[in-house]
Structures are given as structure tokens and as C-alpha cells.
Amino acid sequence: MPRSRSPEPNDKPDAPRESRSHRSHHHSRHSRSPRGDDDRHRHKRRRTRSPAAKPVALPYKAKQLSRRHFEEYRPLFQSYLDIQKQIQLDDLDEREVKGRWKSFTSRWNRGELARSWYDPSMLKTAQETVQSYRASSPQAPTKRASPTYEAQQDTQESSDDDFGPAPPTDLAKHAGHGPTIPKMEDLTYRNEMRNEDRSRDRAEYNDDLRYERKTDRKAQKDRLDELVPRADPGSRERQLEKKRETTSTLQSFRDAKESGDVEVAESDLMGDDGIDQYKKQKRDTERQKNEREIRREEIARARDAERNEALAARREKESKTMEFLKQIAQERFG
């Protein structure tokens, strides 16, 4: 049998094998640790994190806006919506106002608006315009349109004759001089009131006529009982009277149906002056025609008044917008 060769201490091929096994054992020991994996991933995430975005330098060194600046920049925001979007801020609800303000502040903070909007004089001009408009516009009544009576204040020079409430102030402010053109709502209300009055008068007339007829029948019946007293109720004579009354009633209906009598007016039989009747019909026709024409003219005047009011309000709004734009142009270009 061949003899096996014993290993010598100077043999070198086994040294790298031991080093490789040692490195693989060290690597497998570290790879099985979950904490080591987390440390490596955390180190990767720390290296890949992007730097924070720098704030944009706004024109005129304007500041960044947020929700708390709404009341301060409200006039400028209102002018922005009116000029750029043709939208009135007072016509929007709270939710839409918040959305519009968020979009405005986003564009403001990114510096995407025109340079003139960041000018401090623009904000000052907008605030002055809003204040002057509020001072010039009349304040609407909050509760009702009835005149308010202001209580008199006691002064040192007041005499004994000064007593009672002060004269109404709202009527003197809002009421104009002379008659005004009625509106469509006024005409509609007037026609409804007229129709209600006519219906009420007709119903009252029918009720009065029905009551008078009932009273007259009762009076005739009482007089007939006085002239011809009736028999005792339940007696044979009373039964015969009822039978005779029924027979006479049926006979009268039968005679009226068979005779064919027709009630004709005396003017139709004897003739009447046709000229007077024709004149009366003509007057009635003219009166109805005049009433229709008057109603048409009233409706036309009411519509013209409403159209003129809307046109005046639009012109006033356009003139204020043009004045605002002229002020901006004058401040920027002199």
C-alpha cells in the first residue's frame, strides 16, 4: 500500500483556505444581525437626503405670506381678484375665499406674480381705495327698512318743549323728492292686491245676496202662515195640506216646461234706441283699451328703470376700476 504523506509545517496551500473561511465566517456573522442592516440602511438614507429649499427673494424685499396675513393684505387681494380674475371678493363664500387666498399666497411666495404687486405703494393704494369706497357708500339697514328714531340726548340748554323722539333719519337720507317710477315687483304686488279685493268683494256680494234671499223666503213663509194657519202637525189635515202643496209644485213645473214661455225684455219687444246702446258699448271698449295701454306703459317704464339702474351700477364700477388703474399707472410711471 502506498504510504500517505504527512503534512509539513512549511506547506502553504492551507493558509489561504483558513483565511478565506475566517472572512466568510466573519461576514456571515455580521450579515445575520438585523441591527447591522438597519445601520447600513440608515446610513444610506442619511446620505441620499436632499438639502432644504432656500426661500425665494421677492421683489421690493416683500415678505412671505400665510393665512395670518389675510386681513392685512385683504384690499390688495381684492384688487387682484377684480383686475386679474374679474371676480368680486364679497360675492364668494368662505370656502372659495380660502382656496383663492391659498393660490394667491402660493404664487406670491414663489415670486410668480407681476413685480408691481409686490410694491408697498400698491398695498397702500388698495387700502386707501377700499376706505374711501366704504366712506362714500351708504350703509344698508341691518334689521329692517323702517325709519329709526334716535333718542335725544339731554343737554344743558334743553328747554321744556324739547320732548319726544327725534325725526326719522333714514327717510331723509334715502327718500327722493317727488314720485318715483314703480318697479315690476310693485306692479305685480298691486295687481295681486286688486285681484284679491275683487275676489273678496264678489264673495261678500254672493253671501249678502244669498242671505237676503233666505230672509225673504222666511218672511214670505211667515206671512203665509199668518194668512192661512196650518193644521196641527201629525194630523190628517196636515198630511192633506202637504199632499196638495206637492201636487201644486209638480203641476207648476209641468206647466212651465210644456208652455215654453220665454221671458223677453221689453226693450227687445218694443224696440230701443240702438244709438245709446252702441255708444255705451263703445265707451266700455275704449275704457278697457285705455286700461290695457296704461298697464303696458307701466310695465315698460318699470323695465326701463331697472335697466337704467343696472347700467348705472355697471358704469360706476367701471369708473372706479379705471380710476384705480390710473392711480397705479401714475405711481409707477409718473
Sheet with most strands? none
Please write the string of helix (H) and strand (E) elements. Answer: HHHHHHHHHH
Shape verdict: elongated
Tally the helices.
Answer: 10
The amount of helix comes to 55-70%
Distance between the termini: 119 Å
What is the oligomer described by this structure?
Answer: single chain
Structural class: mainly alpha
- The parts where pLDDT drops under 50 for at least 5 residues are 6-31, 140-175
- Quote the average pLDDT: 73
How much is the radius of gyration in Å?
A: 51 Å
Q: Please count the beta strands (DSSP E, at least 2 residues each).
A: 0
Strand content: under 5%
Protein name: RNA helicase-like protein
Region (Disordered): 1-63, 128-320
Biased composition (Basic and acidic residues): 1-21, 183-246, 276-320
InterPro entries: SCI-1-like
